[in-house]
Amino acid sequence: MNQARIAIPSTLPGGLEAGVGAHFGHCDLYTIVDVKEGQVAGVSTLPNVPHAQGGCLAPVNYLAQNGVTVLISGGMGLRPLMGFNQAGIEVYRGAEAPSVDAAVQALLRGDLQRFSREHTCGGGHAH
Question: Can you give the pLDDT at residue 17?
């Protein structure tokens, strides 16, 4: 991955050392990692939006509006996965990573698996 804006659901206070949130829609915040020429070029945080406001697709639209092109996540329902696909945001499984930095490095090495319908939490529930 040569260039991307990656969002990772994170525990407070965010950043590369933060833990990876289990569900993208219920995380404390997102750590945003900008990658250029295959290297981390910048790190920032983005607060999460209230989940009730816009349901499952509120975080999808919010991340898309903030230029995110890749999401590393734990669980999510089918509806938000379809929303990310429609928004052109690639979704990868990475909740097992011990930190945001470990998840990003695994993605850059090509070690993370793309999220698919089989990985969703099912039922279209808000995650």
Answer: 97
The CATH number of residue 47's host domain is: 3.30.420.130
Type of residue found at 33? V
**Cβ–Cβ < 8 Å for 31, 24:** no
pLDDT in tens, 8-18: 999 999 999 99
What pLDDT is recorded for position 1?
82
3-state secondary structure of 15: coil
Provide the domain count of the chain. Answer: 1
The answer to whether residue 90 sits within a structural domain is yes
- The answer, yes or no, to whether residue 66 has pLDDT greater than 50, is yes
Grouping H, G, I as helix, E, B as strand and the rest as coil, residue 9 is strand
Q: Is residue 70 part of a domain?
A: yes
Residues of 55-92 as b/e, b for ≥16 C-beta within 10 angstroms? ebbbbbebbbeeebbbbbbbbbbbbbbbbbeebebbbb
- Asked whether residue 35 is assigned to any structural domain, the reply reads yes
